[in-house]
Amino acid sequence: MTKIITECPHCFTVLKNEYPQYGAKFEVVHHTELIRQLLKDGKLKLDGSVDVGKMVIHDSCYLGRHNVFMKLRGRL
Predict the structure, then answer these.
(1) d(CA 7, CA 30)
(2) How far apart are CA 55 and CA 33, in angstroms?
(3) Which H or E element spans position 3?
(4) pLDDT for residue 33
């Protein structure tokens, strides 16, 4: 296994920061980072035909510590 994709902010933090001390060697990516990269690379396209109206986003403190939410906000 070389990459783990997680949607849980706590799992992201634990896998990325604590598992390496036990010899784990894998890349950990939060799903928002994956979606951002797929959009940037043109591998995922949004046609903008859906009006989502007002949107609420929860900035998890676990993600905020690693500046992940700023990457997500960039796509909004």
Answers:
(1) 6
(2) 19
(3) strand 3-6
(4) 85
Tens-place pLDDT, residues 41-65? 999 887 777 676 776 666 666 666 6
Q: What is the DSSP string of 26-59?
A: -EEEEHHHHHHHHHHTTSS-----S---S-----
Nearest by Cα to 68 from 48, 58, 47, 3:
58
Residue 5, strand partner residues: 29
C-beta neighbour count of 39 within 10 angstroms: 14
11-37 pLDDT tens trace? 888 999 899 999 999 999 988 888 888
